[in-house]
Amino acid sequence: MQEVLNYNQELHNRISPIVDKLIQGNSLYQVKLNQHEMIEMLVDLFGQFSPEEMREINEDDLIKRIDKILVLEAVSGTLNDLTPEQIAIFDAAVEGR
Question: What phi, psi does 60 have (nearest 5°)?
Fold first, then answer.
């Protein structure tokens, strides 16, 4: 049990500054994402990897992975924010492809 707590803390310590930097550098993230929720979600997600697997992911790769996840989180639900007119325009554009 203590190992799990230590590993979660290790993940949190590694992920938190990355999320902080990415959110501070992206206005979409600032508007759409809750930093604390994103850190907790990422700790849970990356917690599925073994400690050895996580330690093998270099910093640049981890930043890229986290950034892709944050993009997905930020834009998911974006269509729900559109007006009916905007949805019709979007649908027409998608059908026209």
Answer: -65, -40
